[in-house]
Structures are given as structure tokens and as C-alpha cells.
Amino acid sequence: MSKQSKYVLRQGHSGELVEAVQERLGLRVDGVFGSRTKEAVKSFQISKNLKGDGIVGPMTWKKLGLSPYELEADTDITTGATWIEQYPLPDGEYVKQETAKKWIFIHHTAGRHNPYKVIDQWGRDQRGRIGTHYVIGGLPASGADETKYDGRILQAFRDEYWGYHLGKTKSAAMHRGSISIELCSAGRLTKKDGKYYTWYNAEVHPSQVCTLNHLYKGQKYFHKYSDKQIESLKALLILLSDKHGIDLQIGVVNELKKLGGGVAPYGVARPNPQNLTQAFNFNDPACSGKVMGLLTHGQVRVDKDDVQPQEELINMLLTLN
């Protein structure tokens, strides 16, 4: 059974957040989300042109004029997601339309390690409203001693809005209904005369090379995701899952587990590593929008290889609840 989100309320929940909803709806306040509260929520949703499912998610919270985060917050700066830096794209560079979120997608940039420059580029280019909600900085592929961006999370626009980020799939709804995350990484590499190079012909230090045991979409070498990037990604995924009620077990994690994936102890070889690589392959039901949960770009596009099945990333994904 997947973990129940704290901030997406449904029948069976109890506590102060339920009390706040009941008070706003003019119900008797007992803090128990039972059938009476569910029916009142459904009626309210329908009156506000929302889907009447009786579940209080981000869209319903907003129509109620309440924020579960504000209700729980105080002035202590150590509370809340203060580790996410706001670095907004200009208006017009994303779609300012509020939508319910059913998917989380992980990408990598196939570019440099600086997350600020990634967002700046989206703001300057002529491709339209293309970009992701979050960008996580990394380490330079050159091996230069520059760690100031490593693991730093920038938010380009609010979760409620959306941007084009997948390219052509069989479901346009996934653009509108997803949260998108970019890891700063040079992506696939080529090896020539014992040296490694990015697609833009920059030499890569061996310490920054991820060498796969088995080819992934024809590729063996990639720019390695750093430990801090993976740590930041995990924290962000947990936060977004709790906020939007997205089940992290559905999608790439489920594919890993179906293939027998388990967290490998440090220093112990993982059995059947080829099978786990296959979890990241193109998945037609996912491409059609039928798999709602946590997915990678490569699972919905035959021609994309982000993100790569790096051992450390796989281990992290398998720890998600």
C-alpha cells in the first residue's frame, strides 16, 4: 500500500487540517474525514467547477481559500521547504494555468552544471513555453573544483502551472498534469582514444563518468549524477508526493521492483543489473498517459535517454515509500 499524503485529504484522514476544512465548509468540527465531510467536499467542488471526487488536493485547497502549509507553518525559517530557491522564468515562458498534477517526470539537461543558466536559457530562447518546474544543479563534467551549484534546487514556476517538457508523446495531458524536474548533466558521452567527450565535444574528467554494466538505449557512458543531486532529488520527490498525492511507487519504481530490484548494500554487487536497466526503457502505456506516478523522460520517448539507470539513482528510487 502506498504512503498516504498528509496534505491531500480524503475519507479516513483525521486531525487539524480536516478541522480547518470542516470549519470552512460550515460543518460540525470533529477532525474526522468521514462520509459527511466527503459529501460536503464533493458538493463544494462541483459548485466551483472542479471534479467532484471528495478529495481535498491542491486545487480544492485553493478554492477553499486555505493552504495546508500556511496552516501548519510558523515564523521559524527552519520549517518548510526553504532549501528550494525561487528563480522564476519570465511571464509568458510557461503556461499560467492551474491544473491538478498526476505525474512527476525526471529529466536531465544534456548541458552544463549551472542551474541558473539553464533557466536563463529557457527565458531567452524562441521555442515558446518550454521548461521544467525544478532544476537541480550538479558538478562540472570537466572535473573542475566547482561545487557551489551541486545539489542546489531552483524552482522556475509554481507547481500549479505547467510548461511543455516532454516533446511528442501519445498523451498531451501529461504536459498539463505533471511536475517536471531537470538534473543538470551533460548526458550521454562518447569515448575516443581513452578519453570521454560530451555531445558538444568538451572533454570529461574520468571522475565524472558513469559507466553502465549494460547498454541503455545504445549508450554505455554518461555524465555521472552527483551524490548531492541524488539526495536533493529524493527530498524533492518526497515533498512533491506529499503535496500532490502522487504515488511514487507507480512508474519507474514499480518497474524496478517487478524486475527484482532491491537496495544493494554498500560494496555488494547487485544481481541481474541488466534487468534493472530495462526498467528505464520506453513504455508504451506510460507514453499513452496510462501510468500515473513517477516516470523518466526515456520511459515515454523512444529517442530519449534521460535519465540514465545509474546505480546510485536506482538505489535511491528503491528507498522511496
* SS-based class: alpha/beta
Name the quaternary structure: single chain
**What coarse outline follows from CA principal-axis ratios?**
elongated
- The CATH superfamily title of the largest domain: Peptidoglycan recognition protein-like
Helix proportion: 25-40%
SSE succession = HHHHEEHEEHEEEEEEHHHHEHH
| First-last Cα distance | 9 Å
Q: Please state how the strands of the largest beta sheet are arranged side by side.
A: 1-4-3-5-2-11
Number of strands: 11
CATH architecture of the largest domain: 3-Layer(aba) Sandwich
**Overall mean pLDDT score?**
92
Beta-strand content: 5-15%
Poorly predicted spans = 75-79, 265-269
Largest sheet: 6 strands, mixed
Please name the CATH topology of the largest domain: Lysozyme-like
Structure, briefly:
The chain is 29% helix and 14% strand. With 321 residues, it is an alpha/beta fold. It folds into two domains: 16-72, Muramoyl-pentapeptide Carboxypeptidase, domain 1, CATH 1.10.101; 84-317, Peptidoglycan recognition protein-like (Lysozyme-like).
Account of the 3D structure:
A hairpin with a 2-residue loop joins strand 9 and strand 10. This protein has 12 helices and 11 strands. The protein is an alpha/beta fold and 321 residues long. The relative contact order is 0.14. The strands form 3 sheets. The chain has a 6-stranded mixed sheet with strand order 1-4-3-5-2-11, sandwiched between helices. Strands 6-7-8 form a 3-stranded antiparallel sheet, with no helix packed on it.
